[in-house]
Amino acid sequence: MEGCGCDLDAVAYNVTVQGFLKGSQCYEALLLMEKMVERGFSPDASTISILVDILPAKGQDSKLFDMIKIFVLKHYAILGLIKGLFENSQCVAARELFYEIFSKGLQPDVRTYTVMINGLCQEGLFDEAKELLIRMEECGCVPNAITFYILINAFCKKGMVCKAEDVLELIIQSGEVPSLATYNALMDGYFLRIDEAMHLFKEIPCKGLNYNVVIYNSMLQGLFENGRCASARELFDEVFSKGLQPDVCTYTVMINGLCQEGLFDEAKELLIRMEECGCVPDGIT
User: What SS3 class is residue 90?
Assistant: First the structure.
């Protein structure tokens, strides 16, 4: 096409590169990507996505991986590749690529740090993830609500509530307000310490946040699991007084909790009320 005096545009370059990648002609694809960048064009999201997807299949080809690393570091396509490596259980390669960013004199942005922290948590490397959060702040990159949530949620799911509390302290020290999702994750972690969970729940409006149905659902579940049926009933009534509408999960938690307490008639009445309010029970209910 170019030999005929017809220049390729961005779309044509990306389509051609994607064809090479899908045909496992990775070296040819990378050479063409270098050429398109020299011409002032950039690989689009689809091209980077295919590059990431084919990488695990070529994982034994160290020369190819080095070429891909050089390309993404040179052309700032780092985020997609790190994410793809973690998604394909290539944690070591993801770490190498991330720390190579610094050797190139570049600074990761908040999204890149967040992807790294999330990947490390998924691999069970919680202490390393927390250290990276601290390093992130020391480098002047401010974590966002998603960054904090990922780490707190990971700690709480593993029962490491004390470490989650340490991260909460970092949020407070940074002057940020924990998100509702963060509060929800912490409350889930506190459910063996229900009084602390309730204290955290009551703190939410003091932080300028509004309750939502999801956080009520979590609190109701925790109360029933700790034998606090009366408190759960009171909290359920509060949902309406806050102008919220219980969803199918709210009703299901309540009905299940009432049944576990032997309050079958009350559970049946609540099922009828649920349908009258236009909330359709699901198979679990």
Answer: coil
